[in-house]
Write a structure and sequence with these properties.
The chain has five helices and no strands. By secondary structure, the protein is mainly α. The model has no long low-confidence stretch (mean pLDDT 88).
Length: 114
């Protein structure tokens, strides 16, 4: 299975998830970031770490990662939140877009593979 195929399946999965109540929209993210910052941090970090594991798998098993962070950088909560916030602003994303999708594309934008 190619990386493009894996990524397409992942994107499709994110779209499916976006139709479920478990997905967090940008609107909810912005509200909860103010009132429940700790829970938002845990959630976004969990999503980011999941993408990190996926990226490691794709790098080792398929030879092509989804995004390419510097080898000496360990992403943390502040990184994920910053990447997400920047991508939301850069792309002027709508309030109904799932943050899970926005973070994935933010990681790809921030750490594009050459």
């Amino acid at each position: 299975m190619s990386v493009k195929s894996c990524f397409a399946k992942l994107a499709f999965l994110c779209v499916l998830i976006s139709n479920q109540s478990a997905a967090m929209t940008i609107e909810t993210y912005k509200k909860e970031k103010v009132s429940n910052r700790g829970l938002v941090d845990v959630y976004i970090t969990g999503v980011g770490e999941g993408y990190s594991w996926l990226n490691t798998y794709l790098s080792t098993e398929r030879g092509q990662p989804v995004y390419c962070p510097p080898r000496d950088l360990t992403l943390n909560t502040d990184n994920y939140i910053s990447i997400l916030d920047s991508y939301i602003e850069i792309r002027n994303l709508g309030s109904d877009v799932p943050v899970e999708v926005a973070l994935l594309y933010g990681l790809r934008h921030t750490f594009a593979c050459d």
